[in-house]
Amino acid sequence: MTSPARIRAERERLPNRRALMTEPISGGGLSGLLSIGRYEDGHAAEAFLEVGKPGTDADLLCRDAACMWSLARQYGVPADVIARALARLEDGKPATIIGAMADAAAGASSIGEMVMNPGG
């Protein structure tokens, strides 16, 4: 199911105070913490992904990927479109922790729905 198209030329700013969910996540042999910030209407707007020891290549790549995901969302790219564009295993699960992040953000509307262990 594709989210309503809201792609725009200007970035939709987030409110100064917003809901944020943080949960453990794993995928592609990595594990870490995923935090998802939401717009007032509940749609995922930003992601923060911390993996392993701070400053390692894996951690920096995951942080950068989360930043790019967040900017795409703030410019209106639907979360499920981003999730579907990332690498998958033969069984359909995400091939990487970045894919697991995208799936979680596309589908979770509450902290209880953020039960993640795809691909890991």
Task: Tell me what the structure shows.
- The protein has 120 residues and is of the alpha+beta class.
- The chain has three helices and three strands.
- It has one domain.
- It is 30% helix and 21% strand.
- The chain has a three-stranded antiparallel β-sheet.
- β2 and β3 (44-51) form a beta hairpin.
- It is globular.
- The chain starts with 19 loop residues before the first strand and ends in a 13-residue tail after the last helix.
Number of domain modules: 1
What is the general shape?
globular
H-E order:
EEEHHH
Give start-end ranges of low-pLDDT stretches.
Answer: 109-120
Percentage of residues assigned to helices: 25-40%
Q: Rg to the nearest angstrom?
A: 14 Å
Strand content: 15-25%
N- and C-termini, Cα separation: 25 Å
* Strand segment tally: 3
Please identify the structural class as seen in this structure.
alpha+beta
Major pleated sheet: 3 strands, antiparallel
Mean pLDDT: 84
Tally of individual helices: 3
Physical arrangement of strands within the biggest beta sheet: 1-2-3
Main attributes?
single chain; 21% strand; alpha+beta; globular; 3 strands; 120 residues; three-stranded antiparallel β-sheet
